[in-house]
Amino acid sequence: LLGCASARPDEPVAPAAAATGTCVPPGRWVDPGAARTLTTKDILPRLAAARVVLLGEAHDNRAHHDWQLQTLATLVGARSAIVVAFEMLPRRVQPGLDAWVAGELDERAFLEAVDWGRSWSLPADLYLPLFRFARANRLPAVALNVDRDLVARVGDAGWA
After folding, report:
1. CA 48 to CA 53: how far, in whole Å?
2. What is the per-residue DSSP string for 76-145?
3. 141-145 vs 84-90, strand pairing mode
4. In the chain, pLDDT over 70 holds for what percent of residues?
């Protein structure tokens, strides 16, 4: 499912429509395989039944993070087992994420425990609503990324 494509719900959507930069209006989803847009009501049963749902965003767009939170809350209401994965956090900070979800850290201590300033370059306030939601609902949370140092080394030296 894509986040950017046709702006009209009845207009066919080509799989490459996201490249145009036109974003889907709020409350709509794009299914590039079916070349059409869907409403949240249309897509919710598919999302709730899926093993994995990826919710992408423009990292610095607060509205995208609000949409992620709304979608996560909807999914929590639609199914019993949810794990929230955070791609911006490297695996090495998993203990801090676990302590946060368990209610053992305040926000300042959490951001220190996950090495926010080094792990991710964007303001934490864009992401804290998602972290707060995971904590309030005691949802298991997983840090998915590798360290930024590794990313930089691969960028400089290549995969080999």
Report:
1. 9
2. HHH-S---EEEEEEEGGGHHHHHHHHTT-S-HHHHHHHTTHHHH--S-GGGTHHHHHHHHHTT--EEEEE
3. parallel
4. 84
| pLDDT attached to residue 3 | 43
**Cα 90 from Cα 144, distance rounded (Å):** 6
What is the sign, positive or negative, of the torsion defined by CA atoms of 116, 59, 3, 149? Answer: negative
Nearest Cα to 134, choosing from 68, 59, 48, 60?
68
Helices and strands: H and E segment counts in the chain: 7, 4
pTM of the model: 0.81
pLDDT tens profile 27-81: 778 887 888 888 888 889 999 999 999 888 889 999 999 999 999 999 999 988 9
Give the closest residue to 127 by CA, choosing from 32, 57, 35.
Answer: 57
- Amino acid, single-letter form, for residue 99: A
Count the Cβ atoms, other than its own, within 10 Å of residue 106. Answer: 10
The token duo for 74 is 């909807």
Structure tokens at 121: 């370059």
